[in-house]
Design a protein that fits this description.
- The protein is of the alpha/beta class.
- Helix content is about 35%, strand content about 20%.
- A six-stranded parallel beta sheet has the order 3-2-1-7-8-9, with helices on both faces.
- Helix 1 crosses helix 10 and helix 6 packs parallel to helix 10.
- The two termini are about 15 Å apart.
- About 40% of the residues are buried.
């Protein structure tokens, strides 16, 4: 990874910002199934039945049960070496670093990431369906649970299909607009609007890197593409980068 690290270092310079986008691939390495996997939790449900506002309106008990199962499963898995490597990268770069994740698990948090934007929400939070207040929530959410602020009903703090992701008004555009280097890790590039971030960075002259099991785009999109598991490639890349910083 020495040559790859040198390219990243050259693009980053002494004061450049680095922004990371992670997708389901990095968490899949820890044992969290995605809705594209076979044999996982998503195989038992149709997306339209558990991951849309319409589904929640039609059958809130089913939706709550689904996310309660996902929340319980999250307690059985651990961050992998890829998560920890990104935590180390943040330590090295400080406020020059931002991590944007599409994942709703807390594996980045547990691996030490703090400059972290959960654009699709968090499993370990619940949100009031009326006033929008989000609070920490580690146990099951039931239809009887009520918001302490307004007595509204509590729902999973998850961005469902058809809903607007978080941090799009300010934090994500600022991070991407200022980035000298952009990492896209473990994401298929199929989910809007996360799949537009690399083009935003590229349009401003940023150096774009893809780390994935396989390439998702041609070389015109990414300046550097590294094939392999995040848990295997990231520690090597960041160790080489640390030697240069």
């Amino acid at each position: 990874m020495k040559n790859e690290a040198e390219k990243v270092f050259e693009a980053l310079g002494d004061s450049g910002r680095l922004t990371v986008l992670t997708g389901a691939g990095i968490s899949a390495e820890s044992g969290i199934s995605t809705f594209r996997d076979s044999g996982g939790l998503w195989d038992q449900y149709e997306i339209d039945d558990v991951a849309t506002p319409e589904a929640y309106a039609a059958n809130p008990s089913l939706v709550q049960d689904f996310y309660n199962m996902r929340r319980a499963h999250l307690g059985t898995v651990q961050p992998n070496a890829g998560h920890r490597a990104l935590g180390r990268l943040e330590e090295l770069l400080g406020d020059r670093f931002t991590l944007i994740t599409q994942n709703v698990d807390d594996l980045h948090d547990r691996a030490g990431s703090r400059r972290l934007l959960h654009m699709h929400g968090e499993l370990y939070k619940a949100r009031c369906a009326d006033c929008g207040v989000a609070v920490e929530w580690r146990t099951d959410i039931s239809l009887d649970d009520r918001c302490e602020s307004c007595s509204g009903s509590m729902r999973p703090h998850i961005v469902w299909f058809g809903e607007l992701p978080f941090y799009l008004e300010r934090e994500i555009p600022e991070a991407c607009g200022d980035s000298a280097v952009f990492f896209s890790i473990g994401t298929s590039g199929m989910v809007y609007p996360a799949n537009t971030l690399v083009s935003q960075v590229k349009a401003r002259g940023g150096f774009c890197v893809e780390i994935n099991l396989e390439k998702t785009a041609g070389p015109g999109v990414f300046d550097l593409q590294i094939e392999g598991k995040a848990g295997e490639t990231l520690p090597l890349l960041i160790a080489e980068l640390e030697a240069l910083l």
